[in-house]
Design goal:
heterodimer; A: 6-stranded parallel β-sheet; two-stranded antiparallel ribbon; B: alpha/beta; 3-stranded parallel β-sheet; 8 helices; 8 strands; 42% helix
Chain lengths: 430, 268
């Protein structure tokens, strides 16, 4: 099998993994080496599905010993198998990197024989890249659940970021759909990586030249829509992952039926893209806006509103906290206003030091007044001529596509997102 | 004495030149209607005065900006000068005049029209240069990594440090077709120069093989069920794609082989 054929197969097999950013590490270049790393990550292209391409995302091998029913690479699936040699992987990474096609390597693998053997193969490839090829760019590796602790440590010292995929949001779903994986199996390496990072931080504080262990932190991915969990249980899980395992990112992947299975949604199910989009929006609210999962959803309303985004939805249900006066409100309160983002809040705080803000001024700061107008006052006044009944506000907050979806449900199923949501649509690279 | 406004300045298009216009404006107590270069054929009813570039004067203005406004303001003005904002010279003059009155706080006055217009232009420049950090595509030609870009703003000064840091051992060229300017990087250092009509040489088979592999990767990474060209377009507008390998004609060059030199034991 030639290299192109292998690359196609192993890319096709890796493409569903979304936890693939190049962010979290800032590292300068070094004489004699190749590459650097930028903390905010760099997108090198965008695929036909609109997702960011930052890393050479491939599996080392798709010959998997496991038989997880949601996974395209499961043992019982009849498809061509391929394995890249460490040298092939290293050459591809280096030559793509030199041409500025990529920011680095994202390496995962099907389970070759067993988790330890697989991890050894990955270590061999990454060591070749780091030591022999002096590659100083970004590397993200998957930790295979069930791998020996020593090997995880060894891998962690070579890479920037590591991730262990939770895959399914509950142990019951895991049991049904991924019989070779258990919750304990998945959480164990996660715990180990978390502790490793903490110990490493302490060591670095003492001795600056200590080798760095997973400096970019860890991430995970959840598949949405393959099992019956609600949005509420998913974001509650994410919240605890951020808190308990200090994860950098949780990624959500709309389930795309790759085959039929007793315990799976039918093959003609459309991937729940809007749901995935809402989960990402909520995830941002958890990480950057000071929201907690309980504020956004509850046992009673366990799923997100399809018509408006989670922040608007929260605001509509908490109208007693508004309007907020932009000239005096603290940052936390500004961040809760629909239409004011992290940058917007910062701009407001900077600008109001020297001038009193009015609505025309907010426009100059690029605040989205279409949404924000219902929730703010400037100098004690709301925007003139603004109607204030809840039904009207809801309509005002909804996008064109959203209105079509809600009021004319049969029209145009194709356009899931409107223009604006497209722009915001998540790419795994923020 | 009121400022004279019925005059236009003609300058040489350099940042130094513009600083000399600022000097002139203060020295002669004038607020020129227009500040323009020879290339921009401007019609004006007013007298045109040619402002000659003078290093000494430019340095005096720059150090005044640094000391009386702030170092950030000087950096901001330099960036504003790299943008495609129409009449940017005149707006920069306004900005500096205001800044000399208010001091460093000028950069916080985001609702001021002059500051707001310049900030937006500078942020457009910043976004474009950030995108190009990812979208630049090099080809190895005669041992040099060569690339061509067609940006709107003059982004090269904002890209130098990144690429020097990234490729300390490569010799690389980024040619800005729009501004006929070449960035040449070598041993982690870079310089800019004016070069007209640069065309990169023909790529050899080895180079074409990696282009082919990248094109195959690009095709394989997209998920059909999530096909979304609009989303792709909003992140990567068409104008960026003209020089990108994945949007060029498919390469068919023979593929490289990488035999394992010897069996390597994992962990050794």
């Amino acid at each position: 099998m030639d290299l192109e054929e292998k690359l196609k197969i192993l890319t096709g097999a890796a493409k569903y993994d979304v936890a693939c950013t190049s962010s979290g590490v800032s590292r300068s270049g070094e004489k004699g080496k190749l590459g650097n790393a930028a903390a905010w990550g760099i997108c090198h292209s965008f695929a036909s599905d609109g997702r960011c391409i930052s890393l050479l995302k491939v599996l080392m091998s798709n010959a998997c010993a496991y038989d997880c029913s949601y996974c395209v690479n499961r043992r019982s699936n009849d498809l061509p198998r391929a394995t890249l040699s460490p040298r092939e992987l290293a050459e591809l990474t280096i030559q793509f990197y030199r041409r500025n096609y990529i920011e680095g390597l994202f390496l995962s693998s099907g389970v070759l024989r067993n988790p330890d053997y697989t991890c050894e193969q990955m270590i061999a490839a990454i060591r070749l890249l780091r030591v022999d090829y002096k590659f100083n760019g970004y590397i993200h590796a998957k930790a295979i659940p069930g791998t020996d602790e020593k090997l995880i440590t060894e891998l962690g010292l070579l890479v920037d970021r590591m991730s262990v995929n939770i895959e399914l949001p509950s142990s019951r779903s895991l049991q049904l759909l991924a019989p070779n994986k258990t919750k304990a199996h998945i959480l164990k390496p996660m715990q180990q990586i978390k502790e490793g990072i903490q110990e490493n931080k302490a060591a670095l504080a003492l001795y600056k030249a200590s080798p760095k262990f997973v400096p970019g932190g860890q991430a995970t991915q959840l598949i949405v829509g393959a099992s019956p969990e609600t949005d509420y249980s998913i974001i509650t899980l994410s919240e605890s992952l951020y808190k308990r395992y200090t994860l950098k990112r949780v990624f959500y992947s709309a389930y795309i039926p790759v085959q039929s299975g007793r315990n799976l949604p039918s093959v003609d199910t459309k991937p729940p893209l809007l749901r995935e989009h809402r989960l990402y929006q909520a995830d941002f609210l958890l990480r950057f806006y000071g929201f907690s999962a309980k504020e956004l959803l509850s046992e009673k309303t366990p799923n997100f509103n399809t018509a408006v985004d989670p922040k608007c939805n929260w605001a509509l249900n908490n109208m007693d906290r508004f309007p907020v006066e932009v000239n005096t409100a603290p940052q936390e309160a500004l961040l809760r206003v629909p239409g004011i983002g992290v940058t917007g809040a910062k701009r407001i705080i900077t600008a109001r030091k020297t001038a009193k803000l009015d609505f025309a001024g907010l426009k100059k700061l690029n605040i989205v007044l279409k949404r924000a107008q219902y929730f703010i006052t400037c100098g004690g006044k709301m925007l003139e001529g603004l109607k204030q009944n809840p039904e009207f506000i809801l309509r005002g907050l909804m996008s064109e596509a959203s209105i079509r979806r809600t009021y004319l449900p049969d029209s145009e199923q194709m356009s899931i997102f409107d223009e604006e949501e497209y722009r915001k649509c998540l790419t795994g690279q923020i | 004495m009121p400022y004279r406004t019925d005059i236009a300045y003609l300058y040489d298009g350099s940042f130094e030149g513009l600083m000399c216009c600022v000097f002139e404006s203060y020295y002669k107590k004038e607020l020129p209607e227009l500040i323009f270069t020879q290339e921009e054929a401007q019609s004006t009813l007013y007298d045109i005065r040619e402002i000659e570039s003078d290093r000494g004067k430019a340095a005096r203005v720059k150090s005044a900006v640094k000391n009386k406004i702030s170092a950030e303001a000087l950096d901001f003005v330099q960036k504003a000068f790299f943008t495609i904002l129409p009449r940017k010279e005149r707006i920069i003059l306004d900005f500096l005049r205001k800044g000399f009155k208010t001091g460093g706080v000028i950069l916080d006055m985001l609702t001021d029209d002059t500051v707001s217009v310049l900030s937006k232009a500078v942020s457009h420049l910043g976004k474009e240069s950030a995108l190009y950090r990812g979208f630049v595509r090099f080809s190895e030609i005669g041992g040099v990594m060569v690339s061509v870009i067609e940006p709107k703003n003059f982004v090269l000064p904002l890209m130098m440090d990144h690429f020097c840091d990234r490729y300390p051992e490569e010799i690389f060229v980024i040619y800005d077709k729009t501004h006929s300017t070449m960035l040449l990087g070598e041993k982690g250092k870079a310089r800019l120069g004016y070069v007209e009509n640069f065309e990169p040489g023909e790529a050899n088979i080895g180079e074409k093989a990696f282009r082919r592999l990248w094109q195959s990767f690009y095709e394989a990474i997209g998920i059909q069920e999530r096909y979304n060209p609009q989303c792709q377009m909003s992140h990567m507008p068409k104008r960026y794609r003209s020089q990108m390998t994945e949007f060029q004609e498919r390469e068919t060059a023979p593929l490289p082989l990488f035999p394992e030199p010897e069996a390597r034991l994992p962990g050794k």
